[in-house]
Amino acid sequence: DRPTLAVVGATGAVGSVMLQILSTRQDVYGEIRLVASPRSAGRKLSVRGEEVEVVALAPEVFDGVDVAMFDVPDAVSAEWAPVAAERGAVVVDNSGAFRMDDDVPLVVPEVNPEQVRHRPRGIIANPNCTTLSMIVAIGVLHEMYGLSELVVASYQAASGAGQEGVDTLYDQLERVAGKRGLGERPGDIRGVVGGLGPFPAPLALNVVPWAGSLKEDGWSSEELKVRNESRKILGLPDLRVSATCVRVPVVTTHSLAVHAVFDRDVDQREAQAVLAGAPGVVLVDHPEAYEFPTPADVVGTDPTWVGRVRRSLDDPRALDLFLCGDNLRKGAALNTAQIAELVAAELTR
Ligand code: 2RA
User: Do residues 127 and 104 lie in contact, with contact meaning Cβ atoms separated by under 8 Å?
Assistant: First the structure.
């Protein structure tokens, strides 16, 4: 029998992408149950070409469920993932609630698929979208050269902040549209964009050096996630990581500029060849023809796109590169679906 799947948070920004992804995989699951907050219960959503009614989150919805995907706020996962696990489901959770717990594996199927089996609590965590947008490519380079340090600047899309982030960006863009001269004086953009939504400054015609919440000594939660999650996924607890996370007026697809330092000397052509041949990675690196990944070209696709691969001019052990990944697909729904498929394969064996 094919396993029964529950999708918790089916009506959110990531949930909608999840239903699209599930619809491209007809033969993995038997029943698919869609679960959301009581507010969304009763809505009908399409998955695998069928209309399925959304049910309200309650302990009984997990009865008979083999795999439960969660894409809900941290507090909701913290409360409900253990309930689903107690009722026998293997939980794949995309919140930050369990990622750094020692007894919860943090899995990227291209990098550490074997970790899926070490799940004493019946919970497997999916990494944050910013980490996920680079880690497949970085994992490949680590295997080749041995990673010792990452210096990262992110260029994060509005949809990382959910549907509210997307709506806020579109509203602001409408308000600035056609206003020539805007952006020439301090504060003039702030004066016209209206509400800031989830962002601490205007996002239209701007960049905002902030994502997440404030942690110690001026670091943002997002920057600490890039550091802690990269260390855990790669199995490098002492990896040196410095990240600066920045929001840009892009709807979907996170980008990152990465300076990666390795244990041994790197070679530009060799690194390009290894990236080009890696599953889940696409190399687009022809600067002479202005060919490199950009969010506008990458959005809606599954792989991690890499370009601008250069050996550092001042350190023969370092590479500089630019990466793009759709933060709702590989950055969230796709990686969750890939983990769930590893579990489903194990359960149907
Ligand atoms: C963001 N990484 O882009 C977050 C979402 N999980 O805001």
Answer: no
